[in-house]
Amino acid sequence: MSEIEIKNLTKTFEVKGQTVTALDHISFRVEKGDIFGIIGMSGAGKSTLVRSINFLEKPTEGQVLIGGTDLGSLSEKELRRERRKIGMIFQDFHLLEQKNVLDNIGFSLEIEGKKKRAARERARELLQLVHLEEKEKAYPSQLSGGQKQRVAIARALAANPDILLCDEATSALDPQTTESILLLLKEINEKFGITIVIITHQMSVVTRICNKVAVIDSGVLVEEGLVQKIFESPKSDAAKELIFERKIRHTPLRRLDAARTIRIVFQENPAYEPVISNVILKAQTPVNILKADTKNIGGKAVGEMVLGLPEGQNIQERIIADLRKSGLIVTEVSVDV
Amino acid sequence: MFDQTVVNMIGTGIKDTLYMTLASTFFGYVFGLPFGIVLYVTRKDGLRPNRFIYFVGDAICNIVRSVPFLILLILLIPFTRFLVGKSYGSSATVVPLVICAVPYIARVVEASLHEVDAGVIEAAKAMGAGKLQIIWKVLLVEARVSLLNGAVITTGILLGYSAMSGTVGGGGLGDIAVRYGYYRWQTDIMAVTVVLLIVIFQLIQNAGSRMVGWIDHRKR
Ligand SMILES: Nc1ncnc2c1ncn2[C@@H]1O[C@H](COP(=O)(O)OP(=O)(O)O)[C@@H](O)[C@H]1O
Ligand SMILES: [Mg+2]
Questions:
Q1: CATH number, domain at A292?
Q2: Less Cβ crowding at N or C end of chain A, within 10 Å?
């Protein structure tokens, strides 16, 4: 049984007499212990999707099953109890501004009807986990963004959930803080076996900690699978665009005359330079390197390179064939990527 | 400067004014706070939208608030007599003051609650909070500074209205000001009562600001 199963989920909104389809027949499963990324451009429907997982948004059509329980079949009260098993954090933290750190973290226990003392005790435990012991008396306004998100994570974990939903949890943070929050999420996943769903528009977040990913484009799930697979050979336009993170579009390098652009992905192969230079030597023609980058995907170093090939169908095919023969994954990239 | 009777009269006036203002604020909130919560909860983007209840509540608010206070005072005389046993004096003035204050307070409360970040409410829902818990533990807590500011403004307004009701025998400093200043041209007594009203107003404002400082954890 999957931890989360989304079946044929559709969500429409009525806006000024018009129907907006935010999610269009989406189905996927998240298994226990997964760190599952959901990636898409702004407005793709990610937030609506993640809010459907704990039924903050009721689907227009389709089902959400949590540990086999169909949320649509629950009464209001049962649903509230079910939600306690699903923690959630947000881009803007959404902490209670008038409560201190300790009482923010204990809030979900307070809701459950736990005694204040017991709630505070548990809150202290969690403060240790998120490394903020010295801030227990502070108010949210006195914390940095990263610290606020740590408090939010502690709050989401207080009730011992099985699942943690993160809606753009690092989008308001600088790269360094993002890294530390992602590491914390990873640690939580490993230590407690909590299934994590991460919504983001940044591929770097997915490649950093997710094992699986679903790509959403205009409310449609266009691609889904292991992060490594999709990173190596993205099929959908949306996935390609997200993998490039549009960086390449704005570099002057783009103006280099490339008749055909390809992307190669290679793993833990320190010999990639000879491979490329060999190809170049063999073809007797220059190749433009439009982009080169390495990423850490699930602990493995994965490199990617975008090459502009010279004119000539024959020579292009030969270069691609040579690269493939050397064990590299080659995909075609449209010129305007 | 003044003889003992005048001093006594002014002393009683201060007491009556404070009594009318504070009692009407208190009872105003006893009814106005739940009323405001109901408006907030039932409005169309509220916790539990209900068109009918909101429409009725909204209409009551607008109607009562558009009747000038003096007219309300006169219209309510039978009701006041029924409730307090007489239609003059400071206790009798509290009745129309409360009726006038309730819809105003409801609006102020509704607006204050509306200031609470929707995201915080969403986070509470995600934690499994019910609607009552959201009202008690999130809305009223997070909006408390705005609520208190609203209460301070309301108290100031009721102070002014209580003085106005003096013209129809309501008692208090406003009554004295009108009787001595307007009818008898004893400007010195009038001046003293006006100054006293200003001082009371200031004290209320200052006490309010100080309390806001104590309970607000958003700054610094
Ligand atoms: N409550 C709502 N009412 C109307 N339209 C909405 C609502 N929530 C989301 N939408 C629409 O659904 C689409 C997806 O929104 P959202 O899930 O927030 O996207 P993302 O999180 O990927 O940026 C957008 O077109 C948005 O305008
Ligand atoms: Mg979003």
A1: 3.30.70.260
A2: N
Q: What is the ipTM of this complex?
A: 0.87
> Both A216 and A282 in a single domain?
no
Given this model, what pLDDT does residue A334 score? Answer: 66
**Distance between CA atoms of B203 and B219, rounded to whole angstroms?**
24
If you measure from the C-alpha of residue B138 to the centroid of ligand 2, how many angstroms do you get, rounded to a whole number? 23
Task: Determine the residue type at A294.
Answer: T
DSSP code for A92: T
Phi, psi of B204 (to 5 degrees): -60, -45
What pLDDT is attached to residue A241?
83
* Strands A18-30 and A4-15, bridge-based pairing: antiparallel
pLDDT at residue A66 in the model: 97
- Report the C-alpha gap between B123 and B106 in whole angstroms: 26
Q: Which of A107, A109, A137 to mutate to test the interface with B (most CBs of B within 10 A)?
A: A107
Best CA proximity match to B154, nearest among B33, B1, B8: B33
pLDDT tens per residue across span B158-209: 999 998 887 677 788 988 888 888 788 888 888 899 899 999 999 999 999 9
B125, B138, B218 ranked by CB distance to A56: nearest: B125
The per-residue pLDDT for range B80-128, each reduced to its tens digit, is 999 988 888 888 899 999 999 999 999 999 999 999 999 999 999 999 9
A249 confidence band (pLDDT: 50, 70, 90) = very low
The predicted model gives A308-321 an average pLDDT of: 84
Instruction: Please tell me whether residues A285 and A322 are part of one structural domain.
Output: yes
Q: CATH number of B4-219: 1.10.606.20, 3.40.1370.10, 2.70.70.10, 1.10.3720.10?
A: 1.10.3720.10
Distance CA B132, CA A113 (A): 13
- Ligand 1 pocket test target in A10, A12, A13 with most atoms within 8 Å of CB: A13
Interchain proximity A83–B125, CB inside 8 Å = yes
How many DSSP H helices and E strands does chain B contain?
11, 0
| pLDDT at residue A298 tops 80 | no
Chain A residues with CB under 8 Å of B133 CB are 111
A90 → closest Cβ in B123, B125, B128? B123
Consecutive H or E run containing B56: helix B51-66
CB–CB contact B128 A142 (8 Å): no
Query: Do the domain assignments include residue A328?
Result: yes
DSSP3 helix / strand / coil % (chain B, rounded to 5):
85, 0, 15
C-alpha distances (whole Å) from A113 to each of A108, A159, A285, B72 are 9, 12, 73, 46
Q: Which of B142, B145, B216 sits opposite A96 (nearest CB)?
A: B142
Domain, as residue range, for A34: 4-233
Q: Whose CA is nearest to atom 12 of ligand 1?
A: A22
Q: Which pTM does this prediction carry?
A: 0.85
